[in-house]
Design goal:
With 241 residues, the protein is mainly alpha-helical. The chain has 2 domains: 1-65, Multidrug-efflux Transporter Regulator, Chain: A, Domain 2 (Orthogonal Bundle); 68-107 and 118-222, Multidrug-efflux Transporter Regulator, Chain: A, Domain 2. It has helices spanning 2-7, 13-20, 24-32, 50-65, 70-102, 128-135, 139-147, 165-180, 185-225, and strands at residues 39-40, 46-47, 154-155, 161-162. Strands 1-2 form a two-stranded antiparallel ribbon. The protein has a two-stranded antiparallel sheet with strand order 3-4. A hairpin with a 5-residue loop joins strand 3 (154-155) and strand 4. It is flat. Residues 10-79, 125-194 form the HTH merR-type domain. Residues 76-107, 188-215 form a coiled coil. This is MerR family transcriptional regulator/heat shock protein HspR. Residues 222-241 are annotated as: Disordered.
C-alpha cells in the first residue's frame, strides 16, 4: 500500500537532513520536542520515513515562511500526528471489519447508539455578545477570527451569528495560543485549520465505520436467509417445477 510505503523508515539521519536541507542536530532537536517521530533500526539507529520528510518540510515552511515560533510549531505538529494516528486507526478498523466479512460472522456488530445525531457541543446557541463575554474578547475580535476562518459560527434564520460550545472552546484555545504561547496569527491559522480538519475527519471516519458496520449487518442477514444448497451445489428454490 502507498500509505505503508510512506511510513516505512528508510533514511538515516544524514540523508534525511540532506533531503530537507537541515543540520542533523536540528532533526534531533525536533525529535526531542516531539515534532517528528522517526523509527529505529534493530541497532537503535534513527530511520526516517517519507512521512517524516514531509513533516520536516512542513516545519521548515512554518518557521521560515510564516514565522511561526517553536511553541506554535509544536501545536501544529501535535495535531498533524493526531490526524496521522486517526487515519491509521481507521484503516485498522477497516481491516478488522473486512475480516469479519470474510469470516462470515454469525452475529452482526452493534451500532453506535447515537450515530448521525448532532453533537450537543456543535449546537449554535450564543449570540456574539454573550460569546465575547464568555471568552473575554471584544465582539470585533470574534468577527476578525471568523473572517480568518479560525472559527465558524452558525447562523439563525435571521442571519444572526450563533456560537456553539465548540466555538467557545476554539476561541479559548486561540487566546491561549496568542497570549500564553506567543504564536503569531499565521501560526494560529494553521493550528485552527488542522483542528477543524481533525474534527471533520474524525466525524467522517466515524460515519464511514457506521456505514461499513451496516453493510456487514446486511450481508450477514443475506447469508443467513439463503436457502440451503442442493446436492449439485445450487441453492434450493422455494417452489419446485
Amino acid at each position: 500500500m502507498v500509505k505503508d510505503a510512506k511510513n516505512r523508515p528508510v533514511y538515516v539521519i544524514s540523508v534525511a537532513a540532506e533531503l530537507v536541507d537541515m543540520h542533523p542536530q536540528t532533526l534531533r532537536l525536533y525529535e526531542r520536542k516531539g515534532l517528528i517521530r522517526p523509527g529505529r533500526s534493530s541497532g537503535k539507529t534513527r530511520l526516517y520515513s517519507e512521512r517524516d520528510i514531509e513533516h520536516l518540510r512542513e516545519i521548515r515552511r512554518l518557521t521560515q515562511e510564516l514565522g511561526v515560533n517553536l511553541a506554535g510549531v509544536e501545536e501544529i505538529m501535535n495535531l498533524q500526528h493526531q490526524l496521522d494516528d486517526l487515519q491509521d486507526q481507521f484503516e485498522q478498523e477497516i481491516q478488522r471489519l473486512e475480516g469479519q466479512i470474510s469470516q462470515k460472522m454469525t452475529s452482526p456488530p452493534a451500532l453506535p447508539a447515537q450515530a448521525g445525531q448532532l453533537d450537543p457541543k456543535d449546537r449554535p446557541v450564543y449570540v456574539i455578545s454573550i460569546a465575547a463575554e464568555l471568552v473575554d474578547m471584544h465582539p470585533q475580535t470574534l468577527r476578525l477570527y471568523e473572517r480568518k476562518g479560525l472559527i465558524r459560527p452558525g447562523r439563525s434564520s435571521g442571519k444572526t451569528r450563533l456560537y456553539s460550545e465548540r466555538d467557545i472552546e476554539h476561541l479559548r484555545e486561540i487566546r491561549r495560543l496568542t497570549q500564553e504561547l506567543g504564536v503569531n496569527l499565521a501560526g494560529v491559522e494553521e493550528i485552527m485549520r488542522l483542528r477543524h480538519s481533525l474534527e471533520e475527519s474524525r466525524a467522517r471516519l466515524e460515519r464511514d465505520i457506521v456505514r461499513l458496520q451496516q453493510d456487514i449487518t446486511e450481508r450477514m442477514t443475506s447469508w443467513r436467509t439463503l436457502p440451503p444448497p442442493t446436492d449439485d451445489g445450487d441453492y434450493a428454490s422455494d417452489t419446485e417445477e
